[in-house]
Design brief:
Layout (H helix, E strand, L loop, with lengths): L13 H11 L13 H4 E5 L6 E5 L15 H7 L29 H10 L4 H13 L3 E6 L5 E6 L4 E7 L7 H15 L4 E2 L7 E5 L2 E7 L4 E8 L28 H26 L8 H13 L1
Parallel strand pairs: 5-6, 5-9
Antiparallel strand pairs: 1-2, 3-4, 4-5, 7-8, 8-9
Length: 303
């Protein structure tokens, strides 16, 4: 890696150094492979109303996931969360509703989290592009302008260019960043123009999502999405028992088998008792028929 040192004797020389770095550095290089150019992750800025310059780092050009939250810097830059803060959120405050199309709504971080976990960060982006090129045959998607620049939508006949962005680009500072990106594509394409009103606002369903997109009339196509709620599966409920007729009275009954057992047991006990009494009063003469009597009693009692 080439390292160059600059020696300054006073602060006023810093401007020239920054200009030199900007001219000589390969700002179109992607050192960490996160799809963000180094010149997009680190920017040299000028202080307002001053000749002073400073270097501002949006994210680390040498780390694909600067804040180590498992979401690459490009993904966070795209959806609008901070690539240097592990606590992800989307700020939708201070919105001028009068500047937004009717029915427009912002997606929050939880919308994105669910989408990324189930599909991918560009799942809706790709769907919007496909829907537009299907409806407008003259428009092409993902067109390469230079070796390092590629626009979302291009109409070659009019040389118009559009960029497809999520709702975070409907407000500052992302709005201006999106316009700057678009301007770069327009400048690089011979005779390029910012896309106009050719694309109309539309709504469609893709997979389990309802998607709306809006032509902001500045070259940006802004979309939002909402996951459709699945209808619960029907549950079969058993029919209730019919009510009893008026005047119904429950009368308990003993089953025939129980009747037989009851009376059979009584008869068996009576036979045993009578046989023993006969033996006693006959002085033992009645023993002769005891075996037959006891057999009958056993049958009646135990079946």
């Amino acid at each position: 890696m080439l390292v160059r040192h600059y020696y300054l004797s006073n602060f006023s020389q810093l401007k020239a150094v920054f200009i030199t770095i900007t001219e000589e550095a390969d700002l179109y290089k992607d050192s960490d492979g996160d799809e963000l150019l180094d010149g997009e992750e680190v920017v040299i800025k000028k202080l307002p109303f001053s000749e002073n310059y400073y270097c501002y780092m949006y994210s680390n050009p040498c780390m694909a996931d600067t804040d180590l939250d498992t979401y690459d810097d490009y993904v966070e830059e795209y959806i609008g969360t901070s690539p240097i803060n592990v606590q992800n959120s989307l700020d939708t405050s201070n919105i001028m509703n009068s500047s937004l199309p009717s029915g427009f709504s912002f997606n929050n971080w939880w919308d994105w989290k669910e989408l990324i976990e189930e599909h991918a960060w560009n799942y809706i982006h790709n769907a919007v592009q496909s829907d537009i090129v299907t409806k407008y045959q003259e428009i092409e998607k993902e067109q390469k302008i230079t070796s390092s620049l590629r626009c979302d939508l291009l109409k070659r006949s009019s040389k118009e260019i559009w960029e497809v962005k999520p709702t975070s680009y409907a407000k500052e500072p992302k709005r201006q960043k999106g316009l700057d990106q678009l301007a770069k594509y327009v400048a690089a394409y011979p005779g390029g123009k910012i896309g106009g009103a050719y694309i109309s606002n539309s709504s469609f369903t893709f997979g389990d999502y309802t998607i709306d997109y809006y032509n902001m009339q500045n070259g940006l196509i802004i979309y939002n999405f909402k996951k459709q709620k699945k209808e619960p599966e029907p549950v079969t409920v058993p029919e209730p028992e019919t009510e009893k007729e008026d005047g119904y009275r429950y009368i308990s009954k003993t089953s025939p088998s129980n009747d037989y057992a009851f009376w059979g047991t009584l008869a068996g006990i009576a036979i045993v008792g009578g046989t023993l009494a006969e033996d006693f009063f006959s002085g033992g003469i009645g023993i002769a028929d005891d075996a037959a009597s006891f057999a009958i009693a056993y049958k009646l009692i135990f079946g």
